[in-house]
Amino acid sequence: MSKNFDVVVIGGGPGGYIAAIRAAQLGFNTACIDEWKNGKGGPAPGGTCTNVGCIPSKALLQSSEHFEHAGHHFADHGIGLSDLKIDVAKMVSRKDAVVKQNNDGILYLFKKNKVSFFHGRGSFVAAKDGGYEIKVAGAAEDTLFAKQVVIATGSNARQLPGAEFDEDLILSNDGALRIPSVPKKLGVIGSGVIGLEMGSVWRRLGAEVTILEAMPAFLAAADEAVAKEAAKVFKKQGLDIQLSVKISAVEKSKDGVTVKYTDAKGAEQALACDRLIVSIGRVPNTVGLNPDAVGLKLDERGAIVVDGECKTNLPGVWAVGDVVRGPMLAHKAEEEGVAVAERIAGQHGHVNFNTIPWVIYTSPEIAWVGQTEQQLKAEGRAYKTGQFPFLANGRARALGDTTGFVKMIADANTDEILGVHIIGPYASELISEAVVAMEFKASSEDIARICHAHPSLSEATKEAALAVDKRTLNF
C-alpha cells in the first residue's frame, strides 16, 4: 500500500533537500528520497555537493593551503618551522568528518521541518489518480504516492571514452578526493573548476601537476582579463596548463597512466603520471528514474526538459538543479528548489539566471556575476569598465595576499552594473555584494557612494566602482 504525501522530492542534494524543507515550511506533507550512503551504509544526504563535490573539495583546499602557507609564507610573519610534513590520511579523515557533519545536519533539518526521509533510489512506477506512484528501492523498500513530484537527481561526472573511471588510477571528482598519498606526477584532463581545484590541492602538497585542456582559451567562461591573470598566477605557482590538446589514447599500467596527445603545435606528446583526474564536465543523472513509465520528456543530452518555471511536460512534475538546463551549480539548484516549492503553493518563486554567481576556489579565488567584457562586445552593447588591484588595498597587504583585482562593468548610458569579476583573496565572499547590487539594478555610482569598512577587501569593490568613472582614490 502506498504512503501518501502532498510532495515527494527525488534526490537529497542541494536542490532536493532545500525543496523538501521549503515545501514542508509551506505546510505540505513532504517526503524526500535519497540513496547516497556513507562508509557504513547509512544515509548520507547532500548529493554530489556534500559527499564528493563542493564541501569535501573545500576541506582539502583549506588543508593544502595551510600546508603551503606553513612551507612558504609563515617565515614572512616571523614564524619558523622545520621538518614540515603532511599526513594525507589525517587530512582525508578531517575531510570525511566535515562531510559527515553536513550529512547529519541535513538529517536534523528534515526532522526539524517534519520531512519524511526515505533512504534508497526513487523511480517512477506509474501515473494514476491524478498523481504519481514512486518506488523506493533500498534496504527497506517502500511505495509512495503524491500529486506533486520534484526531481532533483543531480549529475554524474562525464567519462572520457577509452579512459573510464576506476577511481584508482583514473579518477573522477570522487576518486580525486580520496588519493591516499601525494602522487609524484598527477595528470588532469580538463581545466574547469574541478580540474583547477583538485590540481591545486595536490600541487600544494608536492605533486607535479600537468593539466591538459582541449579548448584554445583558458577559462573561456570567465572575463578575459581575469583568465589572463589566472593563467599567469597558476603558471608561477607551478601548474603546467597546456591548451588546444587533442587526446589520442589513455593507457594504464602497473606503474600508472600514460596520456598520449597532440599539443597546440601539432606535435605528438606522452604524459606519464601516477594518477589521472578526468574532469571534462558532468552529465544529467536520470539513471534508474524510469521516466518512460510516466512519459517524462528528456532532451538529447539526457536532461529533463523544463520550462522557465521548472515545470516538466507532466502535470505536477517539476525538476531542478543539474538534471535540467542551466549552470550546474549547487546554489542555482537551491534557488530553483525554493522557487518550485513556492510555485506549488501558488506563490511566485524567483530565480534570476543573470545574477547567479560563479566561483572557483583556487588561490587566488576567482568569482564573477553577470556578463563578461567579451560577451558585451559580441552583442554590441556600449559599456565602461573600472578595475582596482588588491596590490593597492591595505587589508590585502596585511593578509600578505595582493594578487588580482576587482573589475566592474557598467552600461555606458545608464551606468547599471552589468558584471563584476574578481580574482583575489576571498573573492567568493566579495562577489555577494555584486550579486545584491545587480539584483536591485544598482549603478556603479551606487556602489561608489556606499561607505565600506576600512581596512577591508570590500574597499576594492568600491574602488573598482569609482574606477568606472575614472576617479579611484587609492590607485
UniProtKB/TrEMBL annotation:
Stretches assigned to the FAD/NAD(P)-binding domain: 5-337
Main location per UniProt? Answer: cytoplasm
Q: Which cofactor does it need?
A: FAD
Q: Is this entry keyworded NAD? A: yes
Q: What are the Pyridine nucleotide-disulphide oxidoreductase dimerisation domain coordinates in residue numbering?
A: 356-465
Q: Which UniProt keywords apply?
A: Cytoplasm, FAD, Flavoprotein, NAD, Oxidoreductase, Redox-active center
Query: Which organism encodes this protein?
Result: Ideonella lacteola
> From the UniProt record, which GO molecular function terms apply?
dihydrolipoyl dehydrogenase (NADH) activity
Q: Any additional notes? A: The active site is a redox-active disulfide bond.
- Show the InterPro entries listed in the entry: Class-I_Pyr_Nuc-Dis_Oxidored, FAD/NAD-bd_sf, FAD/NAD-binding_dom, FAD/NAD-linked_Rdtase_dimer_sf, Lipoamide_DH, Pyr_nuc-diS_OxRdtase, Pyr_nucl-diS_OxRdtase_dimer
- Protein name stated in the entry: Dihydrolipoyl dehydrogenase
Which PANTHER family has this protein been placed in? DIHYDROLIPOYL DEHYDROGENASE (PTHR22912:SF224), DISULFIDE OXIDOREDUCTASE (PTHR22912)
Its recorded reaction(s) are:
N(6)-[(R)-dihydrolipoyl]-L-lysyl-[protein] + NAD(+) = N(6)-[(R)-lipoyl]-L-lysyl-[protein] + NADH + H(+)
Q: Where in the cell is it found?
A: Cytoplasm
